[in-house]
Amino acid sequence: MDAAAVRERAGELPREPGVYLFEAGESVLYVGKAVDLRSRVRSYADPRGERIRRMVDAAEGVDFAVTDTETQALLLEANLIKRHQPRYNVRLKDDKSYPLVQLTDHAFPRIEVTRDPDDGATVFGPFTNKGRVETVLKALRETYGLRGCSDHKYAGRERPCLDYEMGLCTAPCTDEISAEDYAADTESVVRFLEGETGVLAEPLRREMEAAAEAEAFERAAALRDKLDAVEAFHEGGGDAVTTRDERVVDVLGVAVEGERATVARLHSEDGKLVDRTRHRVDAPEDEDRIAAVLSAFVPQFYADRPLPDVLLLPERHGDSDLDRWLDAEGVSVRVPGAGREATLVELALKNARRKAGEVDAASALSRRLGIDRPERIEGFDVSHAHGKAVVGSDVTFVEGSPEKADYRRKKLEETNDDYANMRELVQWRAERAVEGRDDRPDPELLLIDGGDGQLGAARDALSETGWDVPAVALAKEEELVVTADGVEDWDDDDPALHLLQRIRDEAHRFAVQYHQTVRDEVSTPLDEVPGVGPELRKRLLRRFGSVGGIRAASRTELANVDGVGEATAAAIDRAL
Q: Which of 38, 188, 208, 458 could serve as 223's disulfide partner, Cβ 3.0–4.6 Å?
């Protein structure tokens, strides 16, 4: 777009808060937020910086979305950056986004919390606190009876489901409510979500007062808490969250190197440092690059994580919309100049700089394998005991660090065939990805624990399902890297090999841990002993480690276990 085209498009935009998207064909090049969409987009007719100038030159059009407030624009911008990963934005590449509320495009709309709204749905948000949103949605359903079931469960029902019995749904599926009355209830819900708080607050207040008069004090207290959440819903948190003690502190440090930046986060609770994490982001070409990284990182990182009571920064981020949001959420933002807080910031900066100067193992792996840089890698392993208690693990690493929230595990068919087990495990993951049933983003690489046979089984599963993700294997003992093109023996000090080893070892640990759990759950001779139920069996296994350990124990040792006694100890001894 040239300057004239930008000015012409800007003149068509409203003077309201919202987000704008510079697009080229189906691709989103850049997402921004604005208090005044028309004025902000017009400024791109004279771009600041060569990078933004290239973006405008490549753009073919500008789309936009209006929001009610500047805070909503800030959060929606973070969501859209996560979804589209535009190349000209500062991007934190994880899958976290702020929750939305949608009413589906249906004759009897469904209401739900989502992060990926359906086509044609009426969408409200984003919101900062998923727990508060879920509390309010339950109150809406209890008051107005909108359904929460999928269209598949809705269709063809002959009688109402449990939600109807619990007072959460008016059961339009079986004509327990007319279309006109359901539409009126839907309209009331829309009015609340658009900001008319009294539509829900007043019925709750009347119900709370009635419960108090009837001396049903527990119910009145529960309704009071629900009313507090409802009244805070459109206020960005309100007073309910501005008086927190400063028990949770996050400290951020930023180091910029070339086109990439590293953000180190120290997490402290009750004065104790409990966690350290590092995150890679694309660095902007802005004059103040650290401030630009901070202003982009904070809303994206905390999209699906609790905000701290205090956020310590190395310098001001310079984003007034971000300041307003954090202030509304009760977060104290400080740039300390001296004392213990300044020492923590310096420690975070050292962590960030150390990461920035380290060898980039993912880039080394990219060069080794001839693939795009794998920021997200999933590792797979299978564990069993001679074909019994067969399980598989699927662990996730992002930027070289474990992402434990994205770990998955699966029980597999009981067969003493490692190749068949690996094929089943990878096929399960691939089918879920292809069918859109896995809520995690696709990885850039799969790592299989094993050799050529396991890799071949995994590749067969990928081919059969059509999931186009490269896969390699790492064989134990000789630590050989197995690819589709052959076997490679990398140097022992190769950072790419070290990354694969960490992922392989974690997949193995996670699989073995799950196998031990499943193994302890399978049938044992203890199941035939009168008086030994599931809880006592678990207690015995925890005490003696295995059935073999129980067998080796004396009757006296068995009888000393809580809940056993002499008679049961004798029965166990005879059974084993």
A: 208
pLDDT given for residue 507 in this prediction: 92
- In angstroms, the Cα distances linking 90 to 12, 282, 293, 374, 377 are 27, 5, 7, 18, 22
Single pTM value for the model? 0.48
Phi/psi of residue 279, nearest 5 degrees: -140, 135
Q: What is the DSSP string of 474-528?
A: E-TTT--EEETTEEE---TT-HHHHHHHHHHHHHHHHHHHHHHHHHHHS--GGGG
- Kindly state the tokens that stand for 171: 């059961």
Q: Count of CB atoms within 10 A of residue 260's CB?
A: 14
The tokens describing 404, both together, are 């434990």
The string of DSSP codes covering 345-413 is HHHHHHHHHHHHHS--HHHHHHHHHTSS--SEEEEEEEEEETTEEEEEEEEEEETTEE-GGG-EEEE--
How many Å separate Cα 572 from the centre of its chain? 46
First to last CA, the chain: 81
- The identity of residue 55, as a single letter, is M
For 223, the token pair is 């309704």
d(CA 165, CA 175): 15
Is residue 308 helix, strand or coil?
Answer: coil
Residues forming a β-bridge with 382: 392
DSSP string, 198-260: HHHHHHHHHHHHHHHHTT-HHHHHHHHHHHHHHHHTTTTTGGGGSS--S-EEEEEEEEEETTE
pLDDT on residue 264: 87
Q: Measuring CA to CA, how many Å separate 202 from each of 124, 206, 247, 555?
A: 21, 6, 35, 66
Q: How far apart are CA 168 and CA 268, in angstroms?
A: 40
What lies within 8 Å, CB to CB, of 408 at 6+ separation is 393, 394, 429
Q: Which residues contact 85 (CB under 8 A, 6 or more apart)?
A: 91, 93
- Is the peptide bond prior to 126 cis by the omega test (within 30 degrees of 0)? yes
Q: What is the mean pLDDT of residues 268-297?
A: 76
Q: Is 470 exposed, middle or buried (0-12, 13-18, 19+ CB in 10 A)?
A: middle
Residues in the chain: 576
With a cut of 70, say whether residue 287 has pLDDT above it: no
Instruction: Work out the widest C-alpha separation in the chain, in whole angstroms.
Output: 93
